[in-house]
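Subject — a protein and its fold

Tokens — whole-number codes for backbone shape
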Amino acid sequence: MSTLNYLTPDQLSRALNMRDLTDPAQGEHAIQALLDAVVGALQTEWRSTVRHVRNSPLVPVRENYDRLGYDTNDVTRARRYTRYVSPTVMLRSHTSAELPVALEDYADRESVDELIVAPGLVYRRDVVDRSHVGEPHQVDLWRIRSTPAMRDEDMLTMIGLLVDSVLPGAQWTATDVTHPYTEGGRQIDVLHNGEWLELAECGRIHPDVLRGSGLNPERWSGLALGMGGLGISDSGPS
């Protein structure tokens, strides 16, 4: 990859100085109340512990792609979609990049039922329109348990709680979709003002992701849900 493909210092500075509306340390915002409602509903249903993960958006390419099962030739790795800083470092393209390292912390624990909450800005090269921006807010909500074989029923319960927290009473559908880091992936669409809109995607955590973080899939399992475009971006509506 040519150095011409990397972000300039000015471009990187601008990206890192954008306000993260999910971060209370950067000021209050309605997006935080929305996220709290979702987390509260899931915690009440599952009686799980909650862990918040918030790190720099600068991540190793390996964490953003390789450890989540993306193929080396996947089109999403192309410069037209990804903001590279160097051959090995990038601005994360999804908050899922935080999870492989986060999961490593459970390898020596005996009894776990925890909701991992990883919110923040992500950086892409989307065109700006009524539903896309280049720097959307996103949150990953991953439930990790020290028991095997989470079920589809658990995933559907999670979807229902999410929708009721964000758009109470809204009609929703879940269609099959493929992710490299999940099994049984689903896309969640909600009917809002007469139009179907994608709200989130989810699935059961792929055994290879668990293994890569030192967790035996015969003992560990979990759910992975990502809700993109949460709230608004400084660049405009999302």
Remarks:
- Helices lie at 9-16, 30-46, 61-64, 99-104, 152-166, 207-212.
